[in-house]
Write a structure and sequence with these properties.
By secondary structure, the protein is mainly alpha-helical. It is built from 15 helices and no strands. 48% of the residues are buried.
Amino acid sequence: MREVLRNRAFAKLFSAQIVALLGTGLLTIALGLLAFDLAGGDAGVVLGAALTIKMLAYVGAGPLLIAATSRVPRKALLIGADVVRAAIALMLPFVGEVWQIYVLIFVLQCASATFTPAFQAVIPEVLPDERQYTRAMSLSRLAYDLESLLSPALAAALLLVMSYSNLFLGTVAGFLLSAALVIATRFPAIELDASSSFSERLTRGARIFGRNVELRALLALNLAVAAPTAMVIVNTVVLVQQQLDRPQADVAILLASYGAGSMVVALSLPHIIERIPERSLMLSGAATVGAGLVGVTATLFTEPAWGLLLTLWAVLGAGNAAILTTAPRLLRRNASTQERPAAYAAQFALSHACFLVTYPLAGILGAALGLGWTSLLLASIAAIATVAASALWQKPAIVST
């Protein structure tokens, strides 16, 4: 990992990712408190709508924005997206109506849907060596997992000495510092697409996925990731506080167990990938989350044991990390420099489209049928996705001579 961080350009971009993630984490907490101030007992409805708006921006607006900005230099595009996000975060403390939250969140998430794929597409140019790129993706996965642990702790500490509205200033600072680090980064020369039409650029990501066996399999693997993620994100709090009647702190502990499983795999993946082919690793990860959800189902239909749940949440995190950390290698390999923004944007949109299905499914079925049946259905979805990915990602035939 140290070898990758010696690359100054990547080190600055990775630092930009970390501070932007922390800013986003503070935004999530501050937004929840703002929603409660404006809507009281209906705050959950407001946050649910905001999450849906976020996903719609990612799925619908993201590819459009990437196609529209494909001729903008990558550095300028990243800086502009960060500045827009900072400006929107600065406006949020002053809203007085719920609809204003929805509008601002949509604009902010459109900026994020522009920034993230463009950022991801730059890293292969900064680190052209596949071995170094794999280590960079492990660090990136680690950053996401650590943010989920550190942002709530940082927010809790800040709320001891300031009001929640000041958390938005932390978000602003995070995005502006991210922009400053991007400004300070020396980008490699990246040839822009100056010839193709807008419609061609808009459909390029779909065409890249359609022509590559590995990326078609990745479509199914996205659904395998979304099934356990929905169970963890949507139903952990319900499981801990309603079904088990445990203290609020145990919600964080169970989520931390999921993050720990993910981090272990992310850290070890650069060594694993040298011994296990990508196909075997990613399909094993998908099978692991399916088996983990079956274990969760069996546990929920009996007397849930806390230690077993901690283990199962770690298993779900590990299985997801095996897929998520390896997936960028497929995108990097199957798209040229000019195609990568479209390929990463397509993956960004398609993966979040899966969340747009599984998140409400986990919430609605959890309330209507109970967590056990919900976990069983999500396990079935993961299993079907795994079988589909295996069928789509056939090993090349060996021709004898």
